[in-house]
Amino acid sequence: MGPQAADDAAVYSFADDRALVFTADFLTPVCDDPHLWGRLVAANCLSDIYAMGGRPLLALNLAGIPSASLPLEVLERVLDGGADKAAEAGVCVGGGHTIDAPEPFYGMAVVGEVAPDAVVRNAGAQMGDALVLTKPLGVGIIVTAAIADLAPRTVAAEAYASMERLNRLASQSMVRHGAHAATDVTGYGLIGHAHEMAEASRLTLRFRAADLPLIPEALNYAAQWCIPAGLLRNREYYGRWANFGGLSEEQIAVVCDPQTSGGLLIALPQPAAEALVADLRAAGEEAWIVGDVVASDPGRVLFV
Question: What is the pLDDT of residues 146-169, one digit of tens each?
């Protein structure tokens, strides 16, 4: 499985019952704490493995730093943060590669394992499925406000805590409850990743605006036009497949907001969705049933 349906990771089957899941990603800084940045990036990179229903095993660091303007101690703290988050996930960091770059970036190439018949792709959503989301929306806007010194520490800390939380339990639970399709909501925002699932599944995803977990502060900052540039690109490109219904401009901004280490968007039968949400909440995780899958124009995303 490669890029044909815009899945979150590549899958290579080398035996009847064994397959590798492989992904790579990197980010420029999203906070001014190097150790926190490392943890956020690691969680983001591991998420692609979880979205496929896999278990991450091994990671290699990918890093760039402007050595003339940033001391190497900053890179060390970033790598320590990534290693700490990887260790939490039970993942070994086996080294990596660093270059001198005009601006800092950090990421990981991650390999995991999955049974070939247990892979969860973004192409399997079925008509009548419920849609579950496992993290709130709007962290990209919050990060933008924090970088501009507009977001209070408490608001920024809550957003970073959400971004840092692994999608491990959500992944394990969705596999256990027989998920038909899944993807993680990251740089393309809910609108973009929902479109990819809808297009790959040849169906329409319909979201209930009242049930979407939109971070209130993100709505407030969107009203002040404190938004990341990627949000505008997402709205312009993916908006052609969307019907925003009665969403306010602020709500539209949040559903188009590029997320760093966002939650999983999962399609599965209604009873299984209810059990999944109950299991995750019992484990102290967040989850919401936010919509359903309907037979309409393939690739469409509706908000009602």
Answer: 999 999 999 999 999 999 999 999
Picking from 115, 100, 266, the residue whose alpha carbon sits closest to that of residue 180 is 266
Q: In terms of domains, do 277 and 194 share one?
A: yes
Local structure of 186: helix, strand or coil: coil
Domain that holds residue 100: 10-118
Average pLDDT estimate for 205-217: 96
128: left (phi over 0), alpha (psi -120 to 50) or beta: left
Integer angstrom CA distances of residue 110 from 24, 41, 57, 212: 6, 12, 7, 30
pLDDT of the residue at 5:
67
If one counts every other C-beta atom within 10 angstroms of the C-beta of residue 167, the result is: 26
Q: Which of 115, 229, 204, 216 is nearest to 158 (CA)?
A: 216
Q: What is the pTM of this model?
A: 0.95
Contact 167, 241 (CB under 8 A): no
3-state secondary structure of 63: strand
Residues 210 and 243 in one domain: yes
